[in-house]
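User: quick one, fold this
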Amino acid sequence: MFQIILRVLWLLSEQKKLVTSLVVCNFLFAILILIEPVFFKEIIDILISFSKDNVDQYNKLTQTLILWIIVGLTTIGIRLFVSIFSDRLAHNNVEKSVFSFFNHTLNLSMRFHMNSNSGQLVKKITKGVDGIFETQLNTFRRALPNIFTIIVLLPTVLYFNIKMGSIVICMWIVSGVVTYFLSTYTFSRQENIEQIYSNMSSHYGDTFSNMPIVKSFTLFSLKNKQLQKLTDQRISEQFPILTWWGVIVSFSQVLRIIVSIVVIFFGSFLYTQWEISVWEIVMFLSFALIFLSAVEDLTWTLEGMFWRLAGIKDYFKILDTPIEVQDKPKAKKLRGVVGNICFENVTFSYDEKRKVLQDINIDIKAWEKIAFVGHTGSGKTTMTNMLLRFFEPQEGDIKIDEQSIYNVTQDSLRKNIWIVFQDNSLFNTTVLENIRLDTKATRKDIERVAKKSHSSDFIKNLSDGLDTVVGERGVKLSGGEKQRLAIARAFLKDAPILILDEATSALDAHTEKYLQSSFDELMKGRTTFIIAHRLSTIMKADRIFVFDGWKIVEQGSYDQLMKIKNGKFTKLVEAQTKGFIE
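Assistant:
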């Protein structure tokens, strides 16, 4: 629990000067706050024996009041400084926290993203950053002043009266121990609640992102029942925790009454023994109330922190997830790419139980058109995923123009490869920005590639042309329109290596035929990988590799493979021509 808080505060280590200033100011604030009861005692002592004719007493009273005013103004100034700059400190770190999570998550492997839910990731970054901000802000604005107040109080009460101070300290220790154990227990239970909140976020995201299915299958009742189950689970878990927080708050309030009674009781006893004055009793009561106010405020502050710690823990859990695919320390940029590609003894598996590819050897010449075919799950897409270094093989090497892709940077590698997916998702921005992506292309460049990809006509018919916002994942466009924008992206990037991963499988025959000329032009002068089931897509390939049982079982041109009697490829073609598309 406190390790997480310390880690949150360590994020501020780059701003040591400001952090140090805030710590020192909070310590001074605690000292000045405790001087006030002493001033109060001194003034009461002066007033008891005050005489108008006594000039010394008059001067002493005036000096004490002026000094008290100075101390009060100084306290206000320090408090104002802490309030303003602790806020600035926490806000400055928000951006760092967001980018740390965002960049680390982007660099995590595809394996991680395949096993993660986008709704939960959004929830973790939102709650995590919010929790870090509140923890850093309240540490300097509320927690530290109260902690220093408690620390300074200990020697102060002993200095004025050891017996009375010892009694007060014993009560403080008991209250501190009880509060600590109650808070720790409550926090441990709160972690379970955060997991339920994550599941609810996942449910929202999963439902909203699949609205066509929800509506067409009338899943309203089912989704509501699933949400109700999660809500009931949250309530059943949350209510006992709320009860414990009620106990903690009530304990701090009851403690104020108990301490006041004990201070007056023992103070009265010591007064009868001539060991303490009435005004010292009043001073100790003030000390006790200051302590209880500090403990109560600290309890509320810790409560707020504890509520957020589970979210912060999830945030750090993502940050602590190791990045599987990393550049080597001295990785160089991939340069002078022509397009010769070699897979040498490549073996890959997602885990020990799920082997995908074994001992793959392929030598591909520049500008060659290569097709991968085979049953679903035979490893076709995995081959191109390894080429992009989305995954790394357990054995073997992959080279581009005699350069191992594991000795070059991932950015330089991927800048030389472009992929057109089966489902080309678009960002919730304009058509222009979806084509441009991170390039520095001008509007004329975008118009040029739109024309080459046969996108110009439908773009002109959009409400705002290139400036039309396409909606989340391109929901406002048809499958064929999104595919044409993906082709436009490929023309714009002009990478020497192209991957067509089931690029036409979601299109009807008419649209596929319409786009085929765009694909043909796109493949010119590029080493191309074609992953497809449709014969029309792979017939023009220079070589076709047939995958089955973790290996390449057949390879050759379309005509060569069709001559193999009872071959795997022949059976795939026969199944498709008979209408049984795999």
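User: anything notable?
Assistant: The chain has 19 helices and ten strands.
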